[in-house]
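Lab channel / #folding
Pinned by the channel admin:
"Please post every new chain as: sequence first, then the structure tokens as a reply. Keep commentary short and put observations after the output so the thread stays searchable."

First post following the new format, from NK:
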Amino acid sequence: MHDIIKKWAAESQEELKQLIFDLCRIPAPSHKEELRAEFCKNWLESKGAQGVFIDEALNVVFPYCDNGGDVTVFEAHTDTVFPDMTPFEVKVEGDIASCP
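Reply from TO:
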């Protein structure tokens, strides 16, 4: 399983970069992460994930087990430390991408 993920990541750098930029543009102050959580849920489902849900704490949960084998867990915070709903634009300089 891990080899498949590593291979996909290596072959999908542009898609991953665009995904990160798209996520950065979605405002998600603490306790108001609904838009970013919905984006993540929809993205997972568009890739074939089934059973994805958003819990009461606005975590995106994708229970996954490969035929009774190991359980794989992916997690990350979706909120930002910025208090308002202003979208951020990603600034790219050479090999470095950043935003506030």
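NK: The longest strand covers residues 91-93.
TO: also worth noting, The radius of gyration is 15 Å.
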